[in-house]
Design brief:
heterodimer; A: mainly beta; OB fold (Dihydrolipoamide Acetyltransferase, E2P); globular; B: Peroxisomal Thiolase, Chain A, domain 1; Peroxisomal Thiolase, Chain A, domain 1; 2 domains; three-stranded mixed beta sheet; 12 helices
C-alpha cells in the first residue's frame, strides 16, 4: 500500500494527468499509452487544471471502516474543463450534490493507516 | 525591499457556537462570551488537518500572485498540531503546491507564533540572497480537553505568505522577537491535549511578551501608535488583544479589522496571521501595520509593514471576513466526532 501510494502522490495531490499530443485527449489517472491512438499516440504528463462539472455521482451509505466517520458521503465523476474525467469524493451533503454543478479541486485527507500509520492525502472536490 | 508578495487564507466551514459548548457543560454562555470575547469558533472537518489547511492557504497565495510554483525554494510550516510527530508537514505542502525540489523545508513549533517565526526565516533568507521566494505558513487544528475553558476558543484555520523582494504588496520594515522561558501553556509528548497555567497565561506570559515586543519595535523605529493605520495582536481570545492594544496606546478602530477571534476562535499559529490577512484585505498604499504574535512558552514576534502601491492591482477576493461569513453550524455531538473526542473501540 505504502509504495503504491507514494508512486501516485503527484497525480493525487496535484491532478497531474496524461495528454496525447496526437489526438489532444486528456486522461486521469495517467496512462502510458493513448487508448485511442495506441502506437501512434504521444503521451506526456501535464497538469489538468482544478475546475470541472459533475458528470454523475453516488451516495455511499455502507462505508468501509476507514470512511465510516464520513458516511453518508458523495463520490462523483468530475469532468474537468480539459475533458479528463476524475473519480473523487465530493465534499458536500448528499442533498446538495447535483449533476451539472460546478466543482473545484481541494486538498483533503483520504484516510490513515490506524493511529501509528501513514496518512494519505489527495484531491477531492467542493461545490463552487 | 523584502516583503510580502502574496498571501492566502483558509478557514474551515464548520462553526460551533459558545452557547452549544456551554449547554453541554452546564455553563453560562453569556458570561463565557462576555468574559472571553469569543462567540463561535471554526472547526476542521474529519478530512481537514494542518496539512490540508496549509496547502489550501498556500495554493490561494500562489494563485493570487501568479508566481510559478517552482520558484518557491523555501517552505516553513508553523503549527502546534502537525499531523505527524515525526515527518514534516512542510514536505506535504511543498509536494502539493509543486515547489522546487531544491527547497529548504522544515516544520516549526512555538505554540501560536510558529507561523510568524517562519516569516522571519523567509525574510532573512531572501535578504541573504539564498532564495528568491519563500513560503511561510501558520496553521492549526488546535485541541482542547473536553470541558476545559480552552474548548470555547481552540479553533482551526491558517494563512500562508509568500515572501520575496519583487512586486511586494507590503514591505517588512523591521522585525524582532522577545523570548523567555515562561511555563504558561504546554503539551508533553504523547499527550492528546495541552495544559495551561490558568491565570498565569495573562500577565507574565501574553501581556509581558506582546507589550515588550511591540513597544521595542516602535521605539527602535521612532514610531508611536498614531503612526499606524492598523495593529494586529495574537488573539487567544477577544479580551487580551483589546487590552494590550489599550495598554500600548492603540485605539479600538486600529485593531477592529483584524479582530477575527470573536467569530472563528483562536486558530493558534494561524491566529495573528488571519487577523493580519484581514487587514491586508482592506489596506491601502502607504499604510503602516503593526503585527505582534505570541507563542506560549513564551515569545512574541513583532513586525512593521508598509503597504505598497502594488496592493491596488493585487487580487484580494475572497476576503477573510467573507470566508468568516460562510459558516455551517454544528452541534456538540458532531463536533465531538470531528475532533475525535469520542473513544472508538
Amino acid at each position: 500500500m505504502l509504495p503504491r501510494f507514494w508512486r501516485k502522490i503527484k497525480y493525487r495531490y496535484r491532478l497531474v494527468g496524461s495528454y496525447c499530443e496526437n489526438c489532444g485527449e486528456y486522461y486521469h489517472p495517467p496512462r502510458n499509452l493513448c487508448p485511442k491512438c495506441r502506437r501512434k499516440g504521444s503521451i506526456k504528463e501535464v497538469p489538468l487544471g482544478s475546475e470541472g462539472t459533475i458528470l454523475s455521482y453516488t451516495v455511499v451509505h455502507d462505508a468501509p471502516d476507514d470512511f465510516k466517520l464520513q458516511k453518508p458521503y458523495v463520490v462523483g465523476l468530475v469532468k474537468l474543463d480539459c475533458g479528463a474525467v476524475v473519480t473523487a469524493q465530493i465534499c458536500c451533503k448528499p442533498e446538495e450534490v447535483e449533476i451539472g454543478k460546478r466543482v473545484r479541486a481541494v486538498f483533503r485527507k483520504y484516510s490513515e493507516e490506524g493511529e501509528d500509520g501513514i496518512i494519505y492525502y489527495g484531491t477531492k472536490f467542493e461545490l463552487i | 525591499m523584502v516583503g510580502i508578495v502574496s498571501y492566502g487564507t483558509y478557514i474551515p466551514a464548520y462553526r460551533i457556537k459558545a452557547e452549544e459548548i456551554a449547554r453541554i457543560w452546564g455553563e453560562n454562555a453569556e458570561s463565557i462570551k462576555s468574559g472571553l470575547g469569543v462567540y463561535e469558533k471554526a472547526v476542521a472537518d474529519i478530512d481537514e488537518d494542518t496539512a490540508t489547511i496549509s496547502v489550501e492557504a498556500s495554493r490561494e497565495a500562489l494563485k493570487r500572485c501568479g508566481i510559478p510554483s517552482e520558484e518557491i525554494k523555501a517552505v516553513f510550516v508553523g503549527s502546534e498540531s502537525h499531523p505527524y510527530a515525526v515527518k514534516p508537514t512542510a514536505t506535504i505542502v511543498a509536494e502539493a503546491i509543486g515547489a522546487n525540489r531544491f527547497c529548504y523545508a522544515a516544520d516549526l513549533e512555538f505554540a501560536c507564533k510558529a507561523g510568524t517565526a517562519g516569516m522571519q526565516i523567509c525574510v532573512a533568507m531572501v535578504k541573504a540572497g539564498m532564495i528568491k521566494y519563500g513560503l511561510a505558513v501558520g496553521a492549526d487544528t488546535s485541541q482542547s480537553s473536553p470541558g476545559d475553558a480552552l474548548e470555547y476558543s481552540a479553533a482551526s484555520g491558517g494563512a500562508a505568505f509568500i515572501i520575496g523582494e519583487n512586486e511586494t504588496i507590503a514591505e517588512v520594515k523591521d522585525t524582532l522577537s522577545f523570548t523567555t522561558d515562561t511555563p504558561d501553556f504546554w503539551r508533553r509528548e504523547g499527550m492528546p491535549y495541552p495544559s495551561h497555567g490558568g491565570r498565569f497565561t495573562g500577565e507574565p506570559a501574553y501581556f509581558r511578551h506582546v507589550y515588550t515586543a511591540a513597544k521595542e519595535i516602535m521605539k527602535r523605529n521612532n514610531l508611536s501608535p498614531e503612526d499606524f493605520s492598523y495593529a494586529v495582536f495574537h488573539m487567544p481570545n477577544g479580551k487580551f488583544p483589546t487590552r494590550v492594544a489599550r495598554m500600548l496606546g492603540f485605539s479600538s478602530e486600529q485593531i477592529e479589522q483584524g479582530l477575527v477571534v470573536r467569530r472563528i476562535g483562536n486558530t493558534y499559529s494561524g491566529s495573528s496571521l488571519l487577523g493580519f490577512s484581514a487587514v491586508l484585505d482592506v489596506a491601502k498604499p502607504g499604510e503602516r501595520i503593526l503585527l505582534t504574535s505570541f507563542g506560549s512558552g513564551a515569545g512574541s514576534d513583532a513586525f512593521i509593514f508598509e503597504v505598497t502601491e502594488n496592493i491596488e492591482s493585487y487580487p484580494r477576493e475572497p476576503k477573510v471576513w467573507e470566508k468568516i461569513e460562510r459558516a455551517r453550524y454544528i452541534d456538540y455531538g458532531l463536533y465531538a466526532k470531528l475532533r475525535k473526542k469520542i473513544r472508538m473501540v
